[in-house]
Every structure is written in C-alpha cells, then in structure tokens.
Specification:
By secondary structure, this protein is α+β, with helices and mostly antiparallel strands. The protein has 3 helices and 4 strands; from the N terminus they run βαββαβα. The protein has a 4-stranded antiparallel beta sheet.
Length: 112
C-alpha cells in the first residue's frame, strides 16, 4: 500500500457567470466523483478581454479533489462551462490535515 502525500490532493478554481451554472458544475463534479467538495463564493472580477477591461459579478468554485483527477475534472468543467475561455486552474496541497485528505480519497473516484 502506498502512503499518500498532501500533494496527492489539491484544489481547483473556476469561475462562472451565474450561481445556477456554478451549482450545475458543482453537482456534476460531485456526482461523477471528480470532486469531494465544491464551495461557491460570490466574487467581483476585473480582467482584460477583447482589448477591454471588463468588470463582472461571478461565482468562484473551490473544488477539492485528488491531483490524479485534475485532467478529467478540467475536461468535464470545460465541457459544461459557458465561457469560451474559462478559468480552470489547479494546485496541489503542500500540507494539511491527513483526515481531510483521507475523506477526499474515500469519496472521489480512484484514478486509472
């Protein structure tokens, strides 16, 4: 049995234009076992798009999962997302509570 490290788990971020779309993506990721937990936060974003500075209300999704599921989750988010170029980024954890990592491992799909 291999000992899992904090870096075997991580967080992904994406933003959506509406709470409904965020909820839809969150449910999809949980139901398909690509994430253990998805938190939704209302945010205000400033960004450059098509040679203009944009300012929009968005919903930020904080997605907790296994790093081995990053690619599958990225593909699924992109498929379900309404943006042409959605923000989808992922970072492994450097440290954390092993019990939390074990829970993520229990409720997500085993990669491979």
């Amino acid at each position: 049995m291999t000992v899992e490290k904090p870096s075997d788990y991580g967080v992904m971020l994406t933003t959506t234009p509406s709470r409904e779309e965020a909820q839809s993506i969150a449910k999809l990721l949980i139901e398909e076992k690509l994430a253990a937990c998805v938190q939704l936060l209302p945010i205000e974003s400033f960004y450059a798009w098509q040679d203009k500075t944009q300012n929009d209300a968005e919903v930020l999704l904080l997605i907790k999962t296994r790093t081995a599921l990053f690619d599958a989750a990225i593909a699924r988010i992109k498929q379900a997302h309404s943006y042409t170029v959605p923000e989808i980024v992922a970072m492994p954890f450097a440290a954390g509570f092993q019990g939390y990592f074990a829970w993520i491992g229990q409720v997500t799909a085993r990669p491979g």
